[in-house]
Design goal:
Blueprint: H1 13-50, H2 54-62, E1 64-69, E2 76-77, E3 83-95, H3 103-114, H4 118-125, E4 138-141, H5 149-156, E5 162-171, H6 179-182, E6 184-185, E7 191-192, H7 194-198, H8 200-203, E8 208-214, E9 220-229, E10 237-238, H9 243-260, E11 265-270, E12 277-283, H10 302-305, H11 311-324, E13 333-335, E14 340-341, E15 348-349, E16 356-358, H12 359-364
Parallel strand pairs: 2-10
Antiparallel strand pairs: 1-8, 2-3, 3-4, 3-5, 6-7, 8-9, 11-12, 13-16, 14-15
Length: 368
């Protein structure tokens, strides 16, 4: 059906152009707004990444955890692989004061076991510190080596707040044998004297660390590893000393000291072909497991640190070399200058005033 001529619509060209222009303007405004918003978001992200707020850094750190890895201190062995210095653990008594019902009663019970007065124990059992803050865990006494396992179990049964932690400790299975040579490691894990100190660079372990993100239960996520630092040190050291020869040398020195009433004795055994030290002893000795119970002067390795004139002990070396190279013969006559001689501006004196005698007799009399 056709419309009447007077109802026919015709489009106005000016109206069409005006509509298109308005649509284009709206699109440009929206696009510019989106670009501006994207620019603002990008700038905010960049700023947040390089200059994070303290709260954001704190929240991020809360979701990152570390696991520390530590090798035990390296062991020391003798020439046959026998352990001279190793590691063990000793119990340390700890307390959670929040779980202690009556501090005074518990202090009175612990006093005889720990060899501590009640006055010493009370501050360690207190529920609050000097600033009024609540205490969650505190060490009562470390290194309880004097208590048996039965005693420890009896102590733990007295309160739910008591617990036992294991602290690492250096252990010397041969006690005072070769103690001056080995030295010791103190209760703080620091090497002191002897081979422990000399080889501390190799024996001392350095802690490694695994750093990763944590899940909602605060467990490290292996798939979110951030960094890994491998632990170092803890190397083993083997020395030339034979512990069986060491025991023998020490027994001989102890016997001789008792026979002559000597206050001290020293001895050293060496391999004549290589110069390797097979045994080295100072008597009296100290037990490195209880180094604090001994006078520090007693821990001095006099064999290695004190100076000695060669004297008669060295004459066997000179005599052997002279005979081996045929510079002298046992029957060769030697002028001992009647007990005194000044060859190089330094006067040498004999104990005996000897004259011209065979070389073998001069050696027997230890003529200088």
């Amino acid at each position: 059906m056709r419309l009447p001529r007077f109802l026919k619509f015709e489009q106005d060209p000016s109206l069409t152009y005006k509509t298109v222009s308005q649509h284009h303007l709206r699109s440009s405004i929206v696009g510019a707004g989106l670009l501006l918003l994207a620019f603002i978001v990008t700038c905010f992200l960049i700023y947040t990444h390089f200059f994070p707020r303290e709260k954001m850094s704190f929240e991020d750190d809360r979701h990152i955890g570390s696991l520390y890895i530590k090798y035990p201190r390296g062991e020391i062995f003798d020439r046959n692989g026998i352990v001279l210095a190793t590691n063990t653990t000793v119990p340390t008594l700890q307390v959670d004061p929040r779980l202690v019902e009556n501090e005074e009663i518990l202090a009175a019970f612990l006093s005889p076991y720990l060899n501590m007065s009640i006055e010493e124990l009370m501050p360690r059992l207190a529920k609050f510190d000097a600033q009024g803050g609540e205490r969650k865990m505190n060490t009562i006494k470390r290194w309880l080596t004097h208590l048996s396992q039965e005693d420890l179990n009896h102590i733990l049964a007295q309160s739910k707040g008591l617990s036992i932690a294991e602290d690492p400790l250096r252990f010397y299975p041969h006690k005072d044998s070769a103690s001056h040579l080995l030295g010791f490691v103190n209760r703080m894990g620091e090497a002191s004297e002897g081979l422990e100190l000399a080889f501390d660079e190799y024996l001392h372990p350095r802690i490694g660390e695994i750093k990763a993100r944590k899940d909602h239960k605060r467990r490290l996520l292996p798939s979110s590893l951030l960094s890994y630092q491998e632990p170092e040190g803890g190397d083993r050291v083997q020395i030339t000393v034979d512990i069986n020869m060491q025991h023998t040398l020490e027994r001989c020195l102890d016997t001789r000291m008792e026979e002559v009433g000597a206050k001290a004795a020293m001895g050293i055994l060496m391999d004549p072909h290589s110069g390797a030290i097979l045994a080295l002893a100072n008597r009296p000795a100290f037990d490195p497991n209880r180094y604090g119970d001994f006078d520090p002067e007693l821990r001095k390795n006099r064999v290695a640190l004190d100076g000695f004139e060669p004297g008669s002990a060295f004459k066997i070396v000179v005599t052997s070399a002279a005979l081996e190279t045929h510079l002298v013969y046992p029957e060769e006559m030697i002028d001992c200058e009647n007990g005194g001689f000044n060859p190089y501006g330094h006067y040498i004196k004999d104990f005996y005033n000897l004259g011209v005698i065979p070389f073998s007799y001069a050696f027997a009399k230890s003529s200088n």
